[in-house]
Amino acid sequence: MDADTVLRIKPALTQYLHEFDGCFGRITARQHLDTYVQGQLGDLPRKSVEPMADAAGIPPRSLQEFLSLYHWDDSAMRDRLQQLVAGRHGHPHSVGILDETSFVKKGKQTACVQRQHCGVVGKTENCVVSVHLGYATPDFHTLLDGELYLPEATWHEDRQRCRAAGIPDDVVYRPKWRIGLEEIRRARGNGIRFAWMTFDEGYGGKPPFLRGLDEIGQNYVGEVPVSFTAWTKPPTVLYREHVQDRRMGRPRKLPRLKVKNNPPVQVRHIASYSPLFRREDWQTYHVKDGHKGPMVWKAKRIRVWLQDANGLPSRAHHLLAAYNVLEPKKIKYFISNAPENTTVETLLLVAFSRWKIERMFEDGKGELGMDHFEVRKFQSIRRHLILSCVSYLFLAEFHLANRGEKPGPDGLPDSHGDQPLGAALDSWRTLLPAVCPADRPTSRSHATTQRQERPQPSQGDPASFARNRAVSEGSTHVSMEAFVAL
Question: What angle do CA 463, 469, 475 make, to 5 degrees?
Answer without folding.
Answer: 135
